[in-house]
Amino acid sequence: MSPDFLYAIEVLLNGLMAGVMYSLVALGFVLIFKASGVFNYAQGVMALFAALTLVGIMNGQVPFSHLINAVFGTHLHDFGWQVPALAAIALTAVVMVFFAILVEKLILKYLIGQEPIILFMATIGLAYFMEGFGDLMWGADIKALDVGLPKGGSLWIEENTVWLAAEGERFFGFFIDKLDISATIVAIILVVALTLFSQYTATGRALRAVADDHQAAMSVGISLRAIWVITWSIAGFVALVAGIMWGSKSGVQFSLAFIVLKALPVLMLGGFTSIPGAIVGGLIIGMGEKLFEFFIGPLIGGATENWFAYVLALIFLVFRPQGLFGERIIERV
Amino acid sequence: MYYREAGDFKTSYRADQQNFPIRFDRIHFWVMMVLAFGVVPFFINDYWANAVFVPFLIFAIATLGLNLLTGYCGQVSLGSAGFMAVGAYACYKLMTSFPDLNFFVVVLLSGGITAMVGTAFGLPSLRIKGFYLAVATLAAQFFLVWLFNKVPWFYNNSASGQISVPRREMLGIPITGPETAASTKYLICLIIVFVLGFVARNLTRGRIGRSWMAIRDMDFAAEIIGVDPLRAKLSAFAISSFYIGIAGALFFSVYLGAVEVGEAFGINNSFLILFMVIIGGLGSIYGSFAGAAFLILMPVLLKNVLVSGLGWPSDLAAHLEFMIMGALIIIFLIVEPHGLARLWAVTKQKLRLWPFPY
Amino acid sequence: MSSYVTPDGRTIGDVLLEVKNITLRFGGVEAIKDISFDVREGEIRAIIGPNGAGKSSMLNVINGFYHPQEGEIWFHGKKRRAMKPSQIARQGIARTFQNIALFKGMNTLDNIMTGCFTHMHTSLIEQAIWWGRAEREEYRYREKVEHIIDFLEIQAIRKTPVGALPYGLQKRVELARALAAEPKLLLLDEPMAGMNVEEKEDMCRFVLDVNAEFGTTIVLIEHDMGVVMDISDRVVVLDYGRKIGDGVPDEVRSNQEVIDAYLGVPHD
Amino acid sequence: MTATSPVQAVTDFGDLVSLPKLLARNVRSYGNKIAYREKEYGIWQEWTWAQAAKVIEELASGLMALGVQPGDHVAVVGRNRPALYWSLLAAGHIGAIPVPLYQDAVAEEMEYVLEHCGAKVVIAEDQEQVDKVVEVSERIHHLESVVYYDPRGLRGYDGERFLSFDELRRRGRGALADNTPKMQTIVDQSNFDDVCVMLYTSGTTGKPKGVVLSNRNIITTSANSAIFDHLTHKESTLAYLPMAWVGDFIFSVGQAMWCGFEINCPESAATMQTDMREIGPSYFFAPPRFFETLLTSVMIRMEDAGRLKRGMFHAFMKHARKVGPALLDGKPVSGWNRFVYKLGDILVYGPLKDALGLSRVRVGYTAGEAIGPEIFAFYRSLGINLKQLYGQTEASVFITQQPDGEVSDETVGVVSPGVELKIDERGEVFYRSPGAFEEYYKNADSTRDTKDPEGWVATGDAGFIDEKTGHLRILDRAKDVGKLSNGALFAPKYVENKLKFYPNILEAVVIGAERDMCTVMINIDLYALGNWAERNNIAYASYQELAGHERVYAMIKKHVEEVNESLAGDDMLSGCQIHRFLVLHKELDADDGELTRTRKVRRRVIEEKFHDLVTALYDGSKQVSTETEVTYEDGRKGSIKATLKIEDTKTLATQSAGAKGAAA
Fold first, then answer.
1. ipTM value for the complex
2. What is the mean pLDDT of chain B?
3. How far is C-alpha B246 from the geometric centre of its chain's CA atoms?
4. Hey, is the C-beta of C97 within 8 angstroms of any chain A C-beta?
5. pLDDT at residue A330, as a whole number
6. Residues of A in contact with B137 (CB under 8 A)
7. Which chain C residue has the Cα nearest residue D273?
8. Comparing C-alpha atoms, which of D125, D128, D124, D76 is closest to residue D97?
9. pTM of the entire structure?
10. Contact C218, C45 (CB under 8 A)
């Protein structure tokens, strides 16, 4: 096989891995949208916040140290201890549940029955708030996150794929980041777990009932508000996972919040209400943007990843407005 | 309680449908205009112009534009900053290509060019609705910013990739470029805002505005009274982009002077304009001004209190600003989802009914 | 047939609308099966039938929301090509909806003003400067709308947001909006549904007055046989998408198939 | 006894001796000034005097074309609309006599009136009115044409007899060339003695009587009353009272023509309040019930206001009651009080008046029946110049009226300019004035009974002139006024009204004719007292128990004694002070025949039915047991037993020794 073709395959594989990341964020969206009809713009910031909290806990950072220092003139920084990764993850998960409860108590409760656009705006407000809050709590500097996931290119794959190219060609085997591989594995586990949860637990069934029909679900005695707390908590876990993956890869920083912007076209493609859609959409976009950048990018100045996903989704939507797996919109008159 | 309406009756449809049918409001409005045109220019300094008045006026135009599209026609757009960029670059290209062209004509043409681009990006709105459309408009945002970044023709191949406004004069007074006086900047923006505000009001109270609102409120019912959704939506996109384009042109040429596209027209500005619309009030001209004023003034105020007043580091203040901004938006949406305009309308209604509660 | 004058002094003219062999399917379901009937100028034509008989679907075909798989529609003696609802509105067909479809963000006056949309022509630029033609046109139509407001006796709610109005008044505003379009053919989808007796009587009077004063041809769907028989000139009866009766109220009343359909299918 | 007005009556009318001549004057003097306004199609449509005159001429010519001759009657029926006012004037323009009818009259009533006046043409507002005319037209043979203003629903009414208002105008325009000279002659010859209008009294007793009023009646009355209140062409008034009522004719036709001021007609009954606010009339008339309903709605709405606002409202209203009337009457008020009132004006009175549409009222009148002092004081304290007048159809309204600054809730003012007043030995009020009617149409007997050859007209009301102020005070219908056994005047309704102004008292029946003292039987107001009981934790199981409660008795006693006090200050009526009272154990009820269907007390029935109680009131006993038959809502009859307490009340000595003789 020619090296160009192999490089293309490598790009494709990398795109697939990146797509898994997009899917992870999109997944959080879909969960919340299905359960509460809220288009949660804050999903990306939730990932940032989760990652920040995780790093903060692991490093034993004093929360709000900057603020306290500014107000009282002290020089606090950290408690001087380290928390093991797993314990820190568990603690962060608790924080995310706490966060879900607060969101329900302070925001959603008051916005029941508002138009979707209003709820959407509220989540943008929430995103702003959390971003400021996270930065204020843990500081805005870029932090490294290492929860012990393997990093760097997988030598094993590299070595075992060199043979694909003919002798003498300049090909050194596929370069695939171990982190991406673990992310893929984690994502698969997460999806399977979510599926099992929604199929085989009472709470999961309640969630599905609410997603199908709010009114009907309430009429059989399902507490909508409890369901919301649960979905936001789950979305929080998903955000935590996404935060760990993205944070391990490129550090925990402000730009993490913008992964939400990567997830949006995924949603458009996959449909706002479909979990398989989120996954397939993520993969398509991940592969598509990498391939486009690889083949067309050099011709038009590069950095096409910023917009390719959107334009792809846009073109796609014009022909299929409900997305890949979205339900067909039937207008009743 | 200040309203005295007995004897304020209308004997013609012109009087009944005027912009301020209540005498008191009318007086109030003209007093404000006299202050804005006749008093403020004599007292304005660089700080007030750059920190408050000029950005307020420019964002008011953009907010008006977005409000026409989102508030009146019901089409959510997250690509406003991208369209502002179109206006800015159109302005730059026109000013550098035709140095003798009157500045106001340039601004107008920039709006026109943006209108065309906006209409093109509005085409999907015929098939895509709601959030799908909102997200789709992000395509415009990212694509346009990328375009202005990557195609050197747009920034005349300048080494820095920036565009800077050439100096122009009118009647011997510098109106763009670094020497422009604060009062000149202010007055240029004020005049354009006044005209565009007037036009927006006219469009929304007539046949076109009603066709937009009909599409917004119930699109199939709009169709059966003869509103063609294609024309209504595209005209809304066009007019809205025209406004936003003008805002972009002014933002670049009068306010900033030099612009780097990713910074000045990033997605955060799109959100900022959307916030202005929401906090001001969807579907309200008055609200567009109120929203812009609120979100321009609040950070200035916070900065003054936190940084200048309490001496905090500015990054802390910025974080706090984010929090307060976010919290305010949420609080607003909970307390009054229809924004300052509704708040004002309710207050006014209360004053009109005073001392009765209803 | 040429025109004739009814006992109460209205003139019924030639055929205005003719529906020929319409069949409408959704997926595999046939909502309307091979239905034909005509509507003559100036008459009140009712379509009745139990729930799910295809009455609303028929209206949706006439005003262009649905495109039937088979059949033709003739309007003003010309076969109609496939059109969008907005184009059909321009031809002079207006309608109201069973579930009120008012523009909730506007007041009564603006809602009715939207009805004049197809008659207003000033350009965007003229509207933007609101000078001369645009302004005059606006006031001219405002006056026309005010006559409709007067006609339907809704002066007191002129500037009330429609969302705040009680159901019966909302129905009236919707009728006003349809009238503002000065339609040749007015389609009313259950104009009296959900009303109390008094409101029903009012609405009947308005329907009759519209027909008598403006000469508007009216096609009306109603669920309740009694009301229909009183006010309509001719009645079409549908059942499960088929036409089972067509004629003057007395004929229809004595049609055995119609009686069976109504007895067999309980209606409220 | 006679009295004269403080204001000089108008004597020189010059050429202005008929409505057509007044119209010509208005066209000359105020041609481009707005004369009529009507809210229609969302805005106030306006007509200047010149425009109105043109339409009136066309209509007049049209009527002439229909064959209306001088002296014929033209009936007009509908709500207040300029077109109908013009119809009235058009009839006068050709020497015909306009007869406005009550729009809510049923067909039979309309039949009687149309038959009685022999109308040749009816000008009706809309289908509703036309249908009534059609219903009776079979039996009215002299009726030739029916003109309708609103053609809606009348397409089928073709034929010779029915034509639209526009058609009438069109025909009139067509015939204008022929008719103008004829009309001009009629107008030129019109004078004070011509009949101006015929108005039917509402006819509570017997059939309605047609009161014939001449140009002299209407124009002199309008001119005199206008001078009395300094009315000018700048006034603006709202026409909303029935057109068939004499008041509307005087205000909206007579005074409006004389002064040249504006008439504003509301869009519909439903929008009357809004329209009133928009117009903000400067001259306003309304019956007491209007003000009462308005006040109730104000209070109810204020109760729903927030605590702060409500508190502020009540505090300032309290202050207003204290100083408002004094300020209005130009009496001295301390600077501080003035300041607080000014503050109240900004916060409460001003906006309140504005919201009610009363902020521009310069002169406001109420009449027809007694107005509650509380209600009267409320509006006065806001700074609204609300006054009372006394009048009737036969007088072309004005007999007496209150001058600015001399306003009281008890009197009805001084005689209007040009009016003479006398009170006969039985206390009945008589008047003689240029406004006194010509005759009852086709009813010479009644005319003779009411108006004597010298021109004195009997009002049928008993009253007297208050010696201190010189104002007339009306007591009751003359036939209901009697004497106590000592010869003192006995005016039960006057006293009962005073008692009934207390919210706790629903009804009162004063007894005393031909007896040595007055006593009263009282019905409590269950609604008001029930509320009070709830607030004060007073338990009661039945109406009877509440009525007999000690504290209720104490309260009623206080009310009665207050009334006594006010009566004692009154030379004429101090004899009517209540000596003993009881609170009835059941509510007086129309089903039991104790009230009429319009809730008027049937004095005789009650005295008979409760004769045991009446006896007890006069035999000095402290309590009395009784059994009364009642009718339940389902028609069954039953009886209730009760023991009622009888309380003595304090009476005051008569202040003036000569009181007893005053009536004689």
1. 0.84
2. 91
3. 9
4. yes
5. 47
6. none
7. C156
8. D76
9. 0.87
10. yes
